[in-house]
Amino acid sequence: xxxxxxxLSCIDPALDRFREAHFWIHAxxxxxxxxxxFRWHFNAFLKSIKEIxxxxxxxxxxRKGFSKWFKSERERLTADPxxxxxxxxxxxxxxxxxxxxxxxxxxxxxxxxxxxxGLSFPVHPLEDSEHAMHxxxxxxxxxxxxxxxxxxxxxxxxxxHREWKVAPFEQELVELSAQAWLRTGETINAVVxxxxxxxxxxxxxxxxxxxxxxxxxxxxxxxNKQLNELRESKQ
Length: 235
Hints:
The structure is a single chain. The chain is α+β, with helices and mostly antiparallel strands. It has two domains: 126 residues; 81 residues, no CATH class. The chain contains eight helices and four strands; from the N terminus they run ααααββαβααβα. A four-stranded antiparallel β-sheet has the order 2-1-3-4. The protein starts with 11 loop residues before the first helix and ends with a helix.
């Protein structure tokens, strides 16, 4: 029996999964520069976001008129190009193989907002950004610091800028996930209204800026120390 003090307790499983999907979005931001954890957290997001309509349907299937009403709501969500795409990718991850988004990177220096100086630098989807910077150090050994990112400069920091995407969408992957979460939230709010309650606020609180998420900053002094160690190991 539903909790009379909370008319939404009947859809608690779906609301819990919705909060879980929110959690995975923040985990994507946290692990943006860690290739494997980033992909694994995206897999978890795909699974949780797809399960929500099913949980809603199961929770309310015995409510008179719900299944007929919800059919059109669920079809509307399923027909959304982004939600359909993510659903297919979830099934692929669960039943077939590993999902590897595309990764694009640049290396340079930043003064806290965008690039002061930057150059496209390949970062493999299975490579951490930290490793990409180390590859640049090996390049410096052979060809010199042509970007001069290791030169003393109190106003800037060396950085890797990275973006994850999945074809055919042009938007960055975390932003796509946020859009999918909000669209699923609209379906939840439609159910909430059907139950006679006030729609819930749909807000991804504490989202970080792209500058904070997509840029990995490095300590210049530490990089020079690592470069010297590499140089000594080759002698």
